[in-house]
Amino acid sequence: MNIIYELYKLGKLAEKRHPMYESSKYAKLMIYIGAAFWAGYLAFFGILFAIGFQGEAVEPYHMLNQGLLFVLVLDYVMRFTFQKPPTQEMQPFLLLPIKRIRLIDALLIRSGLSAFNWIWHFMFVPFALLTVLRFYGLWGVLTYLVGIWMLILINNYWYLFTRTLINEKIWWFLLPVVVYGALAAAVFIPEESPIFDFSMNVGEGFITGNILTFLGVLAVLALMVLANRILLSHLSYKENAKVEDATVKHVSDYGFFNRFGEIGEYMRLELKLATRNKTPKQQVYTAISIVVMFVALVSFTDVYGSGMQTFIYFYNFAIFGVMFLANVMSYEGNYIDGLITRKDSLYHLLLAKFYLYSVLMVLPMILMIPSMIVGKSSFLLCLSWMIFISGFVYFLFFQVAVYNKNTLPLNKKLTARLNTNGTQQVITLVVFAVPLILRFALDAFLGADVTNIIFILIGLGFIVTHRLWIRNVYHRFMAKKYEQLEGFRNTRT
User: Fold this and answer.
1) 436/478 same-domain check
2) Vertex 156, ends 278 and 195: CA angle to 5°?
3) Residues 262 and 360 in one domain
4) pLDDT > 60? residue 108
5) Cα 375 from Cα 244, distance rounded (Å)
6) Is 4 within the bounds of a domain?
7) Which of 285-299, 442-456, 478-492 has the lowest mean pLDDT?
8) Which of 358, 379, 360, 347 is closest to 472 using CA atoms?
9) What's the chain's Rg over C-alpha atoms?
């Protein structure tokens, strides 16, 4: 346990010594307030389920236990947004006289002890106190909550296993797709799904303290930990062995961009960065895969209601901004010294990024064509999101350049230490919250067609004035360039 404590202590010291620590403190306060809000939200749902399931043919805890699979799926999806794989902190310690397997074991234990694995207890604790307590007493409540925690732990290590594989090769995203697709077929195709009965029996076993139920869940948990242990040991050795393929398979100079002068050169640089480096290339594949998956779900299934569909339309168009502009300048931190040696070079780089990622919005528009054909969306709706995101949302993302001092590695994925500025997190939350809240409010009062026109006008306003606000971002960056340079240098790996 000593190594776990040392890792925790060194992690806190690294956070305090990070160049963006001071600028992140107040932003993190907002994040903690948001987390408290969601905790209250989950507690409300726990009470609501306890009251709402009263009067059914079975007890409320039986009803909720039948839906444990849906909770686990939602938990798995949430982890992609909110949970950072612990293996990203391995790199500094691999240089020390510590056995790799001990380091991996410590990181796996830390992952299991993460506070994220307790978030669902804000829903299950009030639910259990209102439903389980009167039949099985405090002991039944305790064993039930321990069992739920073990299921969440299994989900945690399942996420870590699949996320590590997906980071290594994008095609591994098919693994969770196949698993959850098979579970969905088992749930929705039969008239009486065995999944519901199995899930209810597992929950019943937790409440009654059935030793066989706990042993079965414990065995699955041990298998997931072992699978992660083997996988991380193999990949960490492979990544740090520095065995790379130096063979150049295809070279393109993107001569098309020559006609755009210096801005064209930076557009060429951005394309080469995204297609020739391991980490950015993985992000491109991930973005395209997510858009294709969401479009298929929205176009050919009725899984999501109108509210979730609105989020998906927004996310499909914003995905490239989320992947690359939410950390704008982080990849350039590897060679920022050379970029600022010439006047206006960063200004032209920012312009190139804006033009390139605005043009890339055509790709989600093309991929959304099936949803237009089947009538799930309209051309005007997709056009409004495309223009609004190219203007207003990109305007918000580009503000990150002023606060970001963190260099992201171009090729390391498993062992690279990634630090996120709290201000960046707040801007990202605003990017997601404001457009969706504005869309729902305008739809309710003015209707969809008027809302689409308003979104187009807002987006066009920011697109037309893009040189003004990008110039403003550039001047604010240059005003603190030495502070920025120090931060980028100190966070290189």
Assistant:
1) yes
2) 115
3) yes
4) yes
5) 48
6) no
7) 285-299
8) 347
9) 24
Q: What is the pLDDT of residues 170-207, one digit of tens each?
A: 788 888 888 888 888 888 778 778 888 899 999 999 99
Please tell me the pTM assigned to this model. Answer: 0.63
Say how far apart CA 95 and CA 447 lie, in whole Å.
Answer: 60
Q: Decide which of 232 and 239 is more confident.
A: 232
CA dist 191 → 50, 71, 188, 196 (Å): 26, 21, 7, 11
How many Cβ atoms sit within 10 Å of the Cβ of residue 126? 19
Angle (deg, nearest 10), helices 379-388 and 448-464: 30
Structure-token match 């397997």, residue found: 101
User: DSSP secondary structure string, 279-298?
Assistant: HHHHHHHHHHHHHHHHHHHH
CA 252 to chain centre: 32
Nearest to 112 by CA among 1, 15, 193, 19: 1
Contact assessment for residue 85 and residue 92, using Cβ atoms and an 8 Å cutoff: no
- C-alpha angle 436-429-127 in degrees, rounded to nearest 5: 85
**Short-list 310, 307, 461, 480, CA closest to 394:** 461
Q: Are 366 and 438 in contact (CB under 8 A)?
A: no
Query: How far does CA 248 lie from the centroid of its chain?
Result: 32
Give domain status of residue 191, yes or no: yes
The answer to whether 358 and 394 are in contact (CB under 8 A) is yes
Domain membership of residue 249 (yes or no) is no
- What confidence category does residue 432 fall into, taking pLDDT thresholds of 50, 70 and 90? confident
Of the candidates 331, 328, 335, 352, the residue with the CA atom closest to the CA atom of residue 261: 352
Residue 181's Cβ-count burial label (10 Å; 0-12, 13-18, 19+) is exposed
Q: Residue 414: inside a domain, yes or no? A: yes
Phi and psi of 359, rounded to 5°? -65, -35
